[in-house]
Amino acid sequence: xxxxxxxxxxxxxxxxxxxxxxxxxxxxxxxxxxxxxxxxxxxxxxxxxxxxxxxxxxxxxxxxxxxxxxxxxxxxxxxxxxxxxxxxxxxxxxxxxxxxxxxxxxxxxxxxxxxxxxxxxxxxxxxxxxxxxxxxxxxxxxxxxxxxxxxxxxxxxxxx
Length: 160
Description:
The protein has about 160 residues and is of the alpha+beta class. The protein has one helix at about 1-25, and strands at about 55-60, 65-70, 75-85, 90-95, 100-105, 115-125, 130-140, 145-155. It has a domain at about 55-155: Immunoglobulin-like, CATH 2.60.40.
């Protein structure tokens, strides 16, 4: 019985320490602060939408097919885009549908008319067959969520 009470106290302390560390970790922001002056959202409740003043994310292509990939290979593709709108473009977040996909994207404001790239790396390790993965982009555009897609046919390496 005494052993159980000691274990309960230890678990309580571990839980409290974990909660404290988690709360500090959640309050840390690793990225740079972007001024609120850069964000321009002209859409209002009065019906004056002002959509022509928003940034516009325009990609050369939104889908890339890597073709046949040997299992274990990492393949990279850069999606080219430009801000075809009238105000600074801010990409707030980019998520991949799978942990096998890594993404690099610009974290600074992109001026109207300027171009940039979003680099997608697909790791085929442990994958087999047809792979379809997506990349979700959240930005200050209308609509504010866009999607890129990659696909590949992953085959096993030949045995020697």
